[in-house]
Write a structure and sequence with these properties.
Number of domains: 1
Order of helices and strands: HHHHHHHHHH
Number of strands: 0
Radius of gyration: 17 Å
Distance between the termini: 51 Å
Number of helices: 10
Shape: globular
Helix content: over 70%
Strand content: under 5%
Largest sheet: none
């Protein structure tokens, strides 16, 4: 990869991070409800807590925007790079977008989301079938446990395996594994509440 490609790739990763860092849930709840999402429910800025604060329409709007901020930069990186370079570019761009959501510069790298929706957007482009498998895992575990966080962590854990089996590449499977690990680590508070029996249920 020549210097021009490296510069282009670095620029795309930075753009993906900056887009991923936009806290859409926080913005929507503030604009439409006049409340700080970080002081409501779990304090998370993602779609689940946005639903608690503003109902299903607001939660779904947050979900769609968080998905798009992962999908758009990854799709663009797949278009502008050659087929031989695209997997690396898409993997790095996906990691950049997810890190933006997890550690947003606009919020001083604090109170980021869990990264599930943004990761879903990324892998909807990278490996739609693998994402479908992860979504099925999410739905099953969320329904059985009546908790979104259980479904989210199970889906994250299944994603790298599904990506590797479908795409037949360690590179994309590795990126999926790093992102999945970050998502699970970001759920540490949920894990503590699950152990204490205080994690909110879906219903």
């Amino acid at each position: 990869m020549d210097m021009f490609c490296l510069t282009k790739l670095a620029g795309l990763v930075v753009i993906a991070y900056l887009l991923g860092a936009v806290p859409f849930g926080l913005i929507l709840v503030k604009l439409l409800k006049g409340m700080d999402l970080r002081r409501i429910g779990s304090g998370n800025i993602g779609a689940t807590n946005a639903r608690r604060a503003g109902g299903w329409p607001l939660g779904l709007a947050t979900l769609c925007l968080d998905v798009l901020k992962g999908a758009l930069p990854v799709y663009f990186s797949g278009v502008v790079f050659s087929p031989s370079t695209a997997p690396l570019a898409m993997g790095l761009t996906a990691l950049g977008a997810c890190c933006g959501h997890l550690f947003p510069i606009y919020l001083k790298f604090k109170t980021g989301g869990k990264g599930v929706a943004t990761a879903a957007g990324c892998f909807a482009v990278i490996s739609p079938i693998a994402l479908l498998i992860a979504v099925i895992v999410f739905l099953l575990l969320a329904a059985l446990s009546n908790r979104v966080c259980v479904g989210s962590m199970a889906a994250a854990a299944s994603l790298p395996i599904a990506v590797f089996l479908i795409e037949k590449t360690w590179l994309l499977g590795g990126f999926a594994g790093v992102i999945a690990l970050l998502i699970i680590i970001r759920h540490k508070d949920n894990i503590q509440r699950l152990r204490a029996g205080t994690e909110p249920t879906i219903t």
